[in-house]
Amino acid sequence: MAISNIVIGLFLITFVVTTFSSNFYQDFDITWGDGRAKILNNGELVTLSMDKASGSGFCSKNEYLFGKFDMQLKLVPGNSAGTITTYYLSSVGDTHDEIDFEFLGNLSGDPYIVHTNVYTQGKGNREQQFYLWFDPTKDFHTYSLLWNPQSIIFYVDETPIREFKNLESKGVHFPKNQAMRVISTLWDGENWATRGGLVKTDWSQAPFTASFSNYYAQACVWSSSSGSSCSSNSSENQPWLTQIIDAEGEARIQWVQKNYMIYNYCTDIKRIQQGLPPECLQY
Ligand SMILES: *[C@@H]1O[C@H](CO)[C@@H](O)[C@H](O)[C@H]1NC(C)=O
Ligand SMILES: *[C@@H]1O[C@H](CO)[C@@H](O)[C@H](O)[C@H]1NC(C)=O
C-alpha cells in the first residue's frame, strides 16, 4: 500500500502536467514592500502598492523550466506617471535569463507603454514597446508568457504581440538551461518610464496600486533534487511545450506590430549602426 502510493506519487510528479490555477497563498511569497503587498479574498487577489518610501513585490514559490504563465493585471489608474508595474520570469546570477513585461505608467488619459525584453546569459537590450488597444486600468486583462525550448511568445488577452525564436543555430543564446521564477513588482521608474523620464512621479497621488488575479501556470516545475516535472514524452498533453507561432499567429503579430508597436530594437538606427543582432535579420 505504502509502496504503491509512493509509486503513484512519483508517477504524478514525473509525468503529469503541472497546472496551477491561482491561489496566491499557495503559489507566491510576498518578497518586498513591508506590508505594501497584500494577498486578499482568500488568495484570489494580490494588490501591490507603492508610496515614496517603497514599492512592493511578490515571487513564485516554484522555479520553472518552461511553461505558459497567465496572469490578469489591472494597472495603476489615474496619474500613474513614473510607476512601473512588472510581470516577468527570471533566473538569478550574473548570467541570468529573463523574460519581461513592464508596464510604464502615464499621466491620466495618456497611454501606458508595454515594454518587453528578453535577457539571455545576463544580456538584454532586446526591447520592444507597444501601446495597448484598451485601457489597462479599467479592467483586468490577461498577460501571458509562453516559454518552451523553441520559442518565447508574449500574449495580451491571447493575442500574440511578440515572438523570440530559438536561433541558437545562428549563434543567438536562448534561455533553456536555467530555471526561472515568476515575479511581479511595482516600483518607481521616474527616471525613464514616462516620456523617457520627462514626466516624474507625482507623490501627492500615492499610494499607487496595481492588482493581480487568476494566475494560471501550465508549466514544468524545476527542483534541484528531482529536476523537471516534465518528461520529454509528455508533450502530447502539453501543447504549449512545442507551440510556436503559426501563420495565423504571425498575421496577428504583424497586426499588433503595425498598429501598436512604438519601439523595436531591431529597427533602432543607433543599434543598426553597431550591427544588427542576428535574431533581427529575417530568416
Ligand atoms: C505617455 O503619453 C505620451 C503623450 O501621449 C506618449 O508620448 C508616451 O508614449 C506615453 N507613455 C509613456 C509611458 O511615456
Ligand atoms: C519515452 O518513450 C520511449 C518509448 O516508450 C522510451 O523508450 C523512453 O525512455 C521515454 N523517455 C522518457 C524521458 O520518458
What is the N-to-C order of secondary-structure elements (H for helix, E for strand)?
HEHEEEEEEEEEEEEEEEHEH
Treating each run of at least 4 consecutive H or I residues as one helix, how many helices? 4
Named at the architecture level, the CATH assignment is: Sandwich
| Distance separating the two termini | 56 Å
- Uncertain residue ranges: 1-17
**DSSP strand tally:** 17
Bound molecules: 2-acetamido-2-deoxy-beta-D-glucopyranose
Structural class: mainly beta
Q: What percent of residues adopt helix (DSSP H or I)? A: 10-25%
CA radius of gyration is 19 Å
GO biological process, one term: cell wall biogenesis
Function: Catalyzes xyloglucan endohydrolysis (XEH) and/or endotransglycosylation (XET). Cleaves and religates xyloglucan polymers, an essential constituent of the primary cell wall, and thereby participates in cell wall construction of growing tissues.
EC number: 2.4.1.207
Pfam family, one: Glyco_hydro_16
Main features:
binds 2-acetamido-2-deoxy-beta-D-glucopyranose; mainly beta; globular; Jelly Rolls; Beta_glucanase; disordered N terminus; 283 residues; 9-stranded antiparallel beta sheet; 17 strands; manganese; 8-stranded antiparallel beta sheet; 4 helices
How would you describe what is shown here?
Keywords: Apoplast, Cell wall, Cell wall biogenesis/degradation, Disulfide bond, Glycoprotein, Glycosidase, Hydrolase, Manganese, Secreted, Signal, Transferase. One of its GO terms (molecular function) is hydrolase activity, hydrolyzing O-glycosyl compounds. The active site is at residues 98, 102. The protein is mainly beta and 283 residues long. The protein has a single domain (17-280), classed as Jelly Rolls, CATH 2.60.120.200. Helices cover 13% and strands 39% of the residues. It has 4 helices and 17 strands. The protein has helices at residues 2-15, 24-27, 247-260, 269-273, and strands at 18-21, 28-32, 37-40, 45-50, 56-60, 63-74, 83-90, 98-104, 113-119, 128-130, 141-147, 151-156, 159-165, 181-188, 208-223, 227-228, 261-264. Strands 1, 3, 4, 6, 11, 12, 13, 15 and 16 form a 9-stranded antiparallel β-sheet that branches. An 8-stranded antiparallel β-sheet has the order 2-5-14-7-8-9-10-17. A hairpin with a 2-residue loop joins strand 12 (151-156) and strand 13. The longest helix is centred in the first third of the chain and has 14 residues, at 2-15. The chain is globular and about 50 Å long. It starts with a helix and ends in a 10-residue tail after the last helix. The relative contact order is 0.22. Mean pLDDT is 91; it is low at 1-17. The structure holds 2-acetamido-2-deoxy-beta-D-glucopyranose (NAG) (2 copies). One 2-acetamido-2-deoxy-beta-D-glucopyranose (NAG) is lined by residues 104, 106, 110-111, 113, 193-195.
